[in-house]
Structures
1.
Amino acid sequence: MNSTPVDIDQTKKRGTVVEVHNLFKSYGTVQALRDVSFEVHKGEVLTLVGPNGSGKTTIVEILEGLRSYDAGSFSIFGQKPSHPLVKQSIGVFLQESQPMDNLTPREILRLHRSFYNRGLQPEEALARVSLQSESGKLIRTLSTGQKRRLDIAVAIINDPLLVFLDEPTVGLDPGARRSFWEIIRNLRTEGCSVILTTHYMDEAEALSDRIAFLSHGRILALDTPSSLVNSSGIEHSIQICFVSPIPGDIKDSFTAIPGSYWNNNTLLFTTNNVERDLPQLFKEIHEENIQIAELIVHRPTIEDVFHLLAGGNQFDG
Amino acid sequence: MVEQRSKLPITRRLRIIGRLTLSFILQEARSKNAIFWMVAFPVFIFVFFGFVFSQTNFETKDMTIGMDRALVSQGNESKLLDRVLKQNESLDVEFFDPPKGIQMLAEGEIQAYILQLPEKDNYTIYITERNLPFVSMLSVMLDRSNLETVKPFFRGRMPFEYEVQVVSHKGKRLSYIYFLFAGVMAIALMMNGLFAIPQTIINYRKLGFLKRFAFSPLGKFEFTCSLMVQRICLGALQIALLSVSAILIFGIKLTTAPFAFLLTFLAGTAAFSVLGFFLAGVIQSVEAAVAIAQILNMVLMFTGGVFSPLRSSPTIFSLSSVSIRCIIWPGRYMQQLFWVRV
């Protein structure tokens, strides 16, 4: 990596904010990242999607300069993450972090604002995450969702050009998740690049300009949501929910269907010939004498594409 | 747009340190747990032990002073000096001829030897390097205002020699509460550095504060500096509360050497903070840090003579000839220095 000053004009011309080439990382004998390469462009939301342990947080922490790597190279605005100007220009939402909980949101934002040469006023940052009314309360008295929104406010207090959001909506209720989505959309509207990690497929589909599927430290696919679906060759996604619990041996026989997996009592699979595959499946179900509670046939989602690429259900539960 | 500046100016650094220090102080000040252990507990310990031991006949003899026999047969000034020294409960006074006195001093049997000088009202106090605080202590006993000169000068390797000119005599009795006051101040600063710093840093690490700071432009220097300033502020609050309690409840007279007191306070805070930072650096969990700090604490307190004078402690703790004790027993020296300055 070169060490010239950050050239924002050059960055704008090239439109590339982050460049990652052939990144490798292992923890002991566990290979956490294998040959990971991607770019993030100006004003783009790139989402890293994958189950727990797929390497999302490792990538983000390497880019933030918090973790070392074994091989490969990367740059942010053409620089190492430790470069003072890069530190001034990025915002980070950590997956596992709590602010000093005996301070108020206004106090914590004033503190973090003092680290940077430029940025938002604390009140402005609080307004962006709709926390103005909580600005004087102690952080320990805020709800989980409010604390997460405060974390976002801390991440954007320097009005960053690039924001890392590491699983920002884990554990939030649907309403709080939607309000987070709005905050992320607003960041993109303002020209900020975002690297988002999540294992919620609907979140990735709703927010991302591009999605990188990660499994076992490897990028399986990286493209826009529509391109990922279109290039998958899948025409339909099918979910069959059964009335009573299905014995393991019967489950195993259905899992023989390519790309199929079970989620509790529901069988999920994709097909590009629904007219051929469904009657065949009904016949097998009839022979096993089990009852269907619900049948859903729909256009494939990126979750279906991921499961097809990764081979079955990669997510917990 | 990204600005073309790489280093923070000193004014910005100071502002960051100020803001971060304030945040650390508020974080702790709004915690009932921290307030109890860091502020209320040392005051409680001091008042409790102060009441318990001020009523008991506690042996506080910490030194034996040898005196030239010739002093006894001299004029009124010499007799007054003899009386003042004997009046103090922390001292034993014994009489020896000069050769015997110097030999006993060298062998560590006595802590000082007072020899009469030919000039009237002048005495030479011989003292070994093991008992450097002694002259200051003697100054306190004789009442500092009564001493015109206390001139240390070095002759050969040892013993050190001090010339003290006494212009008047007024005895001052040191009670156990002075000893306890100094000891509890040392304990408070010990808890502040040895316990609170590792707990704070390990908690900050666990909760992600350190990670959060790591990717920001905040430097390690500013972080460490802020934490130290916070500990110094807390230590100053502890000392202030203890002093107020000591004055109001036990009628203690405070130091007449504020700069020496301040220096001792800062040096003590620094010494215990270094141990605290060391523990925080090598230990990953609060529980383990507290356990190890507790062991260190007990060793430092008992072997350091914080709770009782070393001469009153079991022989195993009286390792007064170990010259590196100033490194491993900061508590003892803080206690001694606080004591002699009260």
2.
Amino acid sequence: MNWVADDFSPQRRRQGTMSSVFHIDLPLLIGLLLLSILGLVILYSAGNQNIDLIYRQATRLGIGFGLLVVIAQISPRQLKDWTPWLFTLGTLLLIAVLVFGEGKGAQRWLDLGFVRFQPSEIMKLAVPMMIAWIFAESVLPPKLSRIMVALACIAVPALLVARQPDLGTALLIGFGGLVVLLFAGIRWRYIFGAGFLMIAALPLLWFGMHDYQRQRVLTFLNPEADPLGAGWHIVQSKIAIGSGGIYGKGWLNGSQSHLEFLPERSTDFIFAVFSEEFGLIGVLIMLALYLFIIIRGLIIASQGQDTFGRLLAGSLTVTFFFNIIVNIGMVTGLLPIVGLPLPLISYGGTSLVTLMAVFGMLMSVQTHRKFMTT
Amino acid sequence: MAHSLTIKDNYRESQLFNRRALATAFVILLLVIILVARLVHLQILSHEHYTTLSHNNRVKITPMPPRRGLIYDRNGLLLAENIPSFSLELIPEQISDMDATLDALQEIITISERDLSSFRKLLKQKRRFENIPLRFRLNEEEVARFAVNQHLFDGVEVQARPIRHYPFDELTAHVIGYVGRLDVNELNRVDSANYSATSHIGKLGVEKAYEDTLHGTVGYNHVEANAQGRTLRILARTPPQPGHDLKLNLDIRLQQMANEALGDRKGSIVAIDPNSGAILAMVSKPSYDPNLFVNGIDPKAYGSLRDSKAKPLFNRALRGQYPPGSTVKPFIGLAGLEHGYNHRHSVFCPGWFSLQGDDHRYRDWKKTGHGTTNLDKAITESCDVYFYQLATELRIDKIHNFMKRFGFGDKTGIDIQGELSGLFPSREWKRRMRNQPWYPGETVITGIGQGFTLTTPLQLASATATLAMHGLRYQPRLIDTIKDVSDDETIRLKSVVLSNPQNWDTVIESMINVVHGERGTARKLAVKSKYVIAGKTGTAQVFGIAQDEEYDEENIAKKLRDHSLFVSFAPAENPRIAVAVVAENSGSGSAVAAPIARKIMDGYLLENKQ
């Protein structure tokens, strides 16, 4: 944790202005910008050099960074006051989606006439906020009764999203909530006990799954059994990554990607395109950038002045990591296929905007401190 | 404990948080290491393996369809060919404004609503770089008109693809059948690799029965392609092996003659070479144009064919089951001789027959009766009473067993599918199928080919050929030879062996008298005949007439009128052709069916120098 720099260094002072006047955390911003630029570079190749795709993605990034700046101006205290309302609103919208929603195959979208959006995106923020809010004023480690309330506040939205069905987002929401519990300091024996229970409940989960979800699990266990059907994604993705080697085939030269063997290469499987063209070295650089952002996020969390800020920042950061590991694990064949994009790199609007809101909150926690302690 | 105090201790909680954050960071690091290990495994340790796979991914095999075998008649005239058909095809990715292009195309080429709707359906299914047909079978004028304007239409082209064509259209529909678009069920039946480039498959007739022979073997191009199948470069090719050509026994000239001879009547004609079972002509009327089915018939045209009262889609030669009427008499007569009846034995015919202890009168067609009648007279003049008597004495099971040896009630085994077996009743059959006992009255009418008895025109022709050959039976065959494959053998069936071979001549003599005898029912045929014909007329009752009624042709609706039948072979002493004619609802056999048969025999024996 040597990132906590000396108060009197020139860098610290400059950062101080960015921090106290604009409420921007410079290291985090630089990390995000670098990854975003990297994302656009890969997207140009993955999208068959379609410049329109880049313009659209850049526009979204612009909107995202705008939202980041706006949210960073809001103090954590203010965020905390809004939390129960945001959570309630989000839960109601999730119910509305199940009743009135639309979307192909899965119901995720809510059409309000002027705008269509996914309420589940709100919940990616609202659930960790809500759990943090529950523990903010209580003595930590928390009592069992409060843990139960918190668990209910996690389970209801997560199950509603899983019903849509959007397993990936439901996982993120559930995970985001549970991480708050972890950071709130619940006893290890609860954590291990719950882990044991979950493993025991796996067979039950199996029977509750949709056919296509079961198929994904089976395909994950043995993708080569059905290389032209459901296993196609995994097999082709592994070929792309493996054939990239140490140095990669070079930008715009990935044959797997450009001969269109790789499905969803602009979105969920963009990591495979990157690995094919930039090789292991490129992948390590990308992972380093991600780690930089995550570590910065954890530092912000640990420097947080109140429980709410600490818990929220910690949860959002770890969930960000979780999102990355699930996506890369899926693309490399370590995990079953779960429809989660690679944060900041994959093409797509809604989740990108949510992500920027997340970093806006992190910056808010970091820059609204009343006095500095080391 | 300190925790019992409900005062928040920010410092303690911060410490607790930091410990947890540290633990989390540790787990994160661990997971990242696992991830990196996985990537090292994929990108370094298995790099060569995946490079090979990646390279193989570039090479794809695209199939090329074989040329379908042609079908010729016995004299080498082409009956089924592959002609280039011009179709207008669009490549979506090269067209900037699809609607404008479609509108502009309609200015120069007629495009129906149906063309448009099926085009739009395909547009959604196919990939952007694939050709999508908009119009099939462009005529030359349309091709020319498009060629002149081609520069205006990027991404639109006229493609020539081979399409099956039947130049004799209606004439061969019930023999050759047709090919049609391959459907999912068929794809499951055939070797899907061999059919990977094939769009059409034999649906009926010879096209279906000889599908394997006609189809050929698929060829392959090894091409560099992307996952969506877009060809980038051809690396190697294995040419397809064309299907074998077929030569039919059918004589299309004779087929044409038979078709004309039948005129507007519904019915069927089958002509067989008794020496081999070769089918020389096989007509079923009315017929239809098989070319309509090749690229999918439009539903309206299909509906009108299907719903037509004349049933043009129905193959009467193979599937039309008619009461044979008096055409069975030579066979029943033969059954009598075989069972010890003397051909000189006479029966008195008063114009009707009754069973003992029953006053029901079975009428003879000749109200006044034939008087004293022996077998020869009974066949020549087609006396019903003689056969009523004979059948009653033989009983149904003996008749059934004898007739079965000629193939009555069984499929002939012709080399195309769809044939029906007809029916020759027996005691056992009636018990099994109807759960009823056999009544003696039913035996009586079986003696003249009425009652339950049903035969197909093909069966009649085949049985007549067997009779002509003194019992030698051949399976009826449409295919003469398969080119490049030695397959011109005939298939011998179990011969009909009589205890006294003399009996063949006795019955054939009577059949000659039917035509050449003074009182023969078909004596008009003998006029100017240059060869000897043996035949038998038949008039099959469609409409049951009550006991006290007269059959009055004028007052009976056309569809209830009797079927006119005639079976014959010639030359009688050295048979070269056997013909069965069934003309539906046309009246008596002597008046209608017999002259038709004569035309065909003349056509074959006199004009065919073989």
